Amino acid sequence: MGNQPLIVLSEQSQRTSGKDAQSMNITAGKAVAEAVRTTLGPKGMDKMLVNTAGNVVVTNDGVTILKRMDIDHPAANMIVEVAETQEDEVGDGTTSAVVVAGELLKRSEELLDQDIHATTLAQGYRQAAEQATDVLEEIAIDVSEDDSEILHQIAATAMTGKGAESAKDLLAELVVDAIQAVADEDGINTDNVQVEKAVGGAIDTSELVEGVIIDKERVSENMPFFVDDATIAVISDAFEVAETEIDAEVNVTDPDQLQEFLDQEEAQIRDMVDTLVDLDVDAVFVNGAIDDLAQHYLAEAGIFGVRRVKKSDIQRLARSTGARPVNGVYDLTEDHLGFAGSVAQKDVGGDQRVFVEDVEDAKAVTIILRGGTEHVVDEVDRAIDDSLGVVRTTIQDGKVLAGGGAPEIELALALRDFADSVGGREQLAVEAFADALEVVPRTLAENAGLDPIDSLVELRSEHDGGATAAGLDAYTGDVIDMEAEGVYEPLRVKSQAIESATEAAVMLLRIDDVIAAGDLVGGSVDEDDDDDGDMPPGGPGGAPGGMGGMGGMGGGMGGMM
Ligand code: ADP
Ligand code: MG
């Protein structure tokens, strides 16, 4: 073959290898972390996100920001996944997880420059993460599931800095009550806590309703506004005369016949309503439509009827009232009926809703969240979502940590000790890992307008002296005992963040070759770049097409902040 180059990739594909690939991925990962960094902590800033349709979201929530940012660089997306995993697993700590991942990448860049091999780095990071998890377990505090005070503080910590300040105590109380209400032998499903947003009114008039609120009105004006001591039927299909499977054609030869046909249908509807009357049903909730005539008869019988109830509401209704959904009216027996002390149509912020309350054993509850404007209510809703997640996690695991950067400082100290026992080049990676964790207290300080170096020095010396729970009071700038302050987070928020941040960083570090298939590449490619596998001109971020997404992203974010 001589000097003839052998071409194995298609002309359009792009390949970036070795240090260039690493540095490109690291840059992308860091850019993601940088984008959310300023939102961390009680004094974190918010972001305004505007999509192409002009919809505006104002938020402080890491995962919400990243999901809406429309990121298309593959390496950057791996960091976004860190936030998503965090959201799914614990519901809070998404910003911290991403910021730590970004810092791990940043520190590794320095070590790679000192010719430490990526594999060594990865190994060191893994060891450090494992050790960190052990240390966290050791310093974690046991919490019992009925320790309402700590649960309350955990709920409040998760909402800090998220537009809920003025009513944090009340909302924390609602969250804890809600989780305790839906907890049962199968665990805690936060889906059974519904948050009903009502724009108008002050946040501190928000309340918890033990039961379900359905965003619908009763189907006919002639039905009662409310029924007390209601026997409830839940139908997961329509309230109509069953349609035949085959398209039948009815030939009518004289008007009497037509009347007979209509009478028949009427009789059947009547019979269906009678079935409910015989079972003493007071309220019926239907997933599908309710036939017009049926509405009339139901109203006549004084039965409260709601149509087009969402599937998720059908499930909540069943769960809270004890009703068992049936497909059709004729499937109903007494065993399927549920019960509620009150079914009523009420006004919430100008909208009519149906309240199903006073259920014997409320296994589904609703938080009515009020607030001045839609943007405020939406952001507080996200805060409540985080808060529900941390209270659930705490009850599940029974272990919490003091917040305010305390665990990160404690870990950094412990890992620096541990590094000595590791030795070799991996020691450097463990030390870098320790330094990287300190990004959390450092950022908390920065976002609070404090001098991060002063804060870190003080935190370290407190922890050196044995104050495991010493953290940064973002409001005063003092280093204080976070336990006494009541700033707590579930252990899993920290351990999961460290685990996923490490996984993502290690995964990116181990990549030494990025091959983008031809159809991913938008622009035309200089032929020279393909056959020798070199990085296209322009260095990291400057590559055209698919890999160039990073450059685009950086620009987008620059414009956003
Ligand atoms: P995340 O998405 O990581 O949860 P947040 O913006 O919610 O990001 O910030 C969480 C960080 O803020 C945690 O380190 C937590 O300990 C800290 N924090 C929360 N409340 C306080 C407080 N009152 N004082 C100091 N730090 C706090
Ligand atoms: Mg949080």
Q: Classify the secondary structure makeup into a structural class.
A: alpha+beta
Q: Which oligomerization state do the chains in this entry correspond to?
A: single chain
Output the strand order for the largest sheet.
Answer: 7-12-11-8-9-10
Instruction: Profile the largest sheet.
Output: 6 strands, mixed
**What shape does the CA trace take?**
elongated
The total count of helices amounts to 19
Percent of residues in beta strands? Answer: 15-25%
Model description:
The structure is a single chain. With 561 residues, the protein is α+β, with helices and mostly antiparallel strands. Helix content is 48%, strand content 16%. A hairpin with a 2-residue loop joins strand 11 and strand 12. The longest helix is centred in the middle third of the chain and has 24 residues. The protein is elongated and about 95 Å long. 49% of the residues are buried. The site of adenosine-5'-diphosphate (ADP) has 25 residues, from helix 4, helix 14 and strand 15.
